[in-house]
Amino acid sequence: MRRRPVEPEAQVTVGEAQVGRGNPPEVLDGPFSTRQLLRIDEALRLADHGTGLVFSVFVGGLDEPIREHAERLHRQLAEPDRSVLIAVSPNQRRLEVVTGRHARKRIPDTYARLAALSMVAAFGLGDLAGGIINGLDQLASHAGRG
């Protein structure tokens, strides 16, 4: 598991709707409430600021092969080498964590797997937003200050 998606700033992408920092959520139909989106946005901001890496989250359908789709999303980011992507497809019951070359030095696969296990446990309890937030926190904690 490794890497991140979409624009220079960390964003939450739900289906095709995006929520970037400082913008009000514009998701008409998605798995998160406005409050949950704001909490995820804050967790992204804290992870970015605390580590110097760039974190992103994608929630939506992933094409087969899932890992390759997540890696394609990660490569589309402004700074893929310094980026971490959490790609979640709740309907497919899949999670991928993609790290860039520089980010992987600070978040080895073992730590990414531990964060993923924690997220999966929360997802299993029906807490999608909480799992993402906790996963971001764990990944940022492992990365430390950059």
Task: Summarize the model shown.
This protein is an alpha/beta fold and 146 residues long. It is 45% helix and 18% strand. The chain has one domain (11-143): Diaminopimelate Epimerase, Chain A, domain 1.
Throw out a few tags for this protein.
five-stranded mixed sheet; 5 helices; DUF5130; transmembrane; globular; membrane; 18% strand; Diaminopimelate Epimerase, Chain A, domain 1; alpha/beta; disordered N terminus; TLP18.3, Psb32 and MOLO-1 founding protein of phosphatase; transmembrane helix
How is the topology of this model organized?
Blueprint: E1 11-14, E2 17-20, H1 34-51, E3 54-59, H2 66-75, E4 83-89, E5 94-99, H3 101-106, H4 109-124, H5 128-143
Parallel strand pairs: 1-3, 3-4
Antiparallel strand pairs: 1-2, 4-5
How would you describe the overall organization of this protein?
This protein has 146 residues and is α/β, with parallel strands linked by helices. The chain is built from 5 helices and 5 strands, in the order ββαβαββααα. The chain has a 5-stranded mixed sheet, sandwiched between helices. The two termini are 21 Å apart. The chain crosses the membrane at residues 111-133. This is TLP18.3, Psb32 and MOLO-1 founding protein of phosphatase. Pfam families: DUF5130 (PF17174).
From the 3D structure, determine the CATH topology.
Diaminopimelate Epimerase, Chain A, domain 1
Radius of gyration equals: 13 Å
- Distance, first to last CA: 21 Å
What is the 3D shape? globular
Structurally, how many domains make up the residues?
1
Cross-sheet strand order for the largest sheet: 2-1-3-4-5
- CATH architecture annotation: Roll
User: What is the averaged pLDDT score?
Assistant: 83
Order of helices and strands: EEHEHEEHHH
The protein's oligomeric status is single chain
For the record, the CATH class is: Alpha Beta
Number of strands: 5
Helix content: 40-55%
Strand content: 15-25%
Structural class: alpha/beta
